[in-house]
Every structure is written in C-alpha cells, then in structure tokens.
Amino acid sequence: MIRNWNFGVTKDGITIKAFELRSDCGCRAVILDHGAILQSFHLPDGRSVTLGFDNWNEYETDENYIGRIIGPNANRILGSKFKIEGHKILLTANEGSNHLHGGFNGFHTQQWRAQPSGKDLTLTLNSPDGFHEFPGAMAVTLNISLKRNCLKLDMRASSDKATAMNMTWHPYWNLSGNRIDGHNLLVDAETHSKPQTRDSFPVKNTRFDFRKPLPLGHIELDANYRSVKRAVLTSGNTKMCVTSSLPDIQVYTGDALPLPRSGIALEPQYRPNDINFEQDCLLRPGEIYHHWIAYQFTTS
Q1: What is the Cα–Cα distance from 101 to 79, expressed in whole angstroms?
Q2: Beta strands 282-283 and 184-187: pairing type?
Q3: Which residues of the chain have pLDDT under 50?
Q4: Which residues have a Cβ under 8 Å from the Cβ of 205 and sit 6 or more positions away?
Q5: What secondary structure letter does DSSP report for 4?
Q6: CA distance 84 to 121
Q7: Cα–Cα distance between 20 and 41 in angstroms, integer?
Q8: Measuring CA to CA, which of 19, 47, 110, 290 is 20 to 30 A from 165?
C-alpha cells in the first residue's frame, strides 16, 4: 500500500500530497502530485541520493527544476519558435531568447491527479489547447513504479493537434552526499549535439568523452549525448545505471545550483531543439507518445 500525506499548500491554496513508494529490498521514493516531483529517493541503507526540499515553500522559489517532470518539451527551443506543417508557433522565451523546459506554464508547474494502484503511482494531466503555448489539447499519463532497486517512469501522451512532445524527468543525483566531483561517470555514446545545428560531433578526444568511466573532477557539462545506450554514475560502492527508450541524454553537472555541483542531472530525451530539425518529437493526432526511463541502483 502506498502511504500518502499532506506535504504543503501552494500560494494558490492547493494542498500538495506526497506519496511514498517502497520496494521489497528497502528502497523508498517520495513523489509529489504537483509537478510530479521526485522529492526523495532512499537506498536500503537509508541514504537519500536525490536533491529535494523538506517543505513546499522552497519548491515555490526553486528555479532549477529539482526533481520535476519536464514537458511538453524538454530542453531548449532556440528562438522560442518552430513550425509544424508550415504553421509557425511562437512561444514565450524564458532563458534569454530561448524557450526552456516547457516555459512558465510547463508540466512542472501543474497539479497532477494522483491515483495509487497497488505498489505503483499513476499521475494524469489534461491540458486544453494552447494552455502551454503548444498546439493541441493534451492528455498525459505518468506511471511510476519501484521494483526492488529499480525506479521506473513510464510516460504516455496524446494530442488532438500536431505538437512537440519531448518529456523527461529532472532529478539531481548525488550518491555520496558530497560534491559530485568525486563521482565517476560513464556515458555510452559516440557523439554529442548542439542546439544550434542538426549536426552531431564525435566525443573522442574531447572533454565530452565518457565512454569509459572517468572522474567528473571539475569538468562542467551541460551537454546532450546522442544515441545513448546507458549512463552510469558511481561513487564508492554505489552505482546508478540510467536507461531509457528515448535516444539521447542531457548531462548537467549542476554548476548553477545554489550549492554548485551538489547534484548531477541525467535527462533522457530527444535532442535539444529537435522540433526545428528532425522533428522526431512530433506527436500527431491519433498517435501515442510512449517512452520510459529507468534508474537501477546497485551497492557492493
């Protein structure tokens, strides 16, 4: 049975509920129904390995998307504009001239309907056409499960108009409790991309090359890796492996956090600005967007 409790109240008077998922091996995940926030994840030994706040007021002022679901479109849309089938869509810029993480009204700002089902938690959101400035009335369903040492997010969405749909989850991970500099990172990918161009660039012989596990040290990353098989974060005897049905992973070492480098974000998604290039993230009426992200933990 999933335990739940009142976590706080928004400035608009909405009560936020917390839901705790537990696995047979002792892992625990706490999810909030506002923004589908992963508030905490505890390993069997009691360690919390995500960044999160203990009260809602701090989430109200957070500008770093800590633990939140991101949508309709993760990452950057350059110039805050794109075209679908010849129709120009203009968005509000919220990072210089660019549109970042779904904007001011993104999925991360919304109150979701939570429904526990056995040991899983389902969150649903229905948004009217244009509410997030993206075309289409959207129906979105998230299913969050915790089986033994694996946390999994399953994402589904539909729209009655062609639109961009590129969701991700934005936890910041820290396996040691110290700065992430001492963590080792592996990203199983040969290339990375930049939002300014459709080209991909080899990681070999660059600071982006983590094809073998390497200490993060002081390397600053806010980079999208292409066609990623897996990303593995290790600290001491603790390892987290991230896999996904999504093709790419954005790796951000948290250098602009209030406590710089206190966590690392590993965000599976379609590439930044994809809607202006390949449009792999294009969701058409009658189609279902369906992707998953899994976080597998091991200790030795």
Answers
A1: 14
A2: unpaired
A3: none
A4: none
A5: E
A6: 34
A7: 10
A8: 19
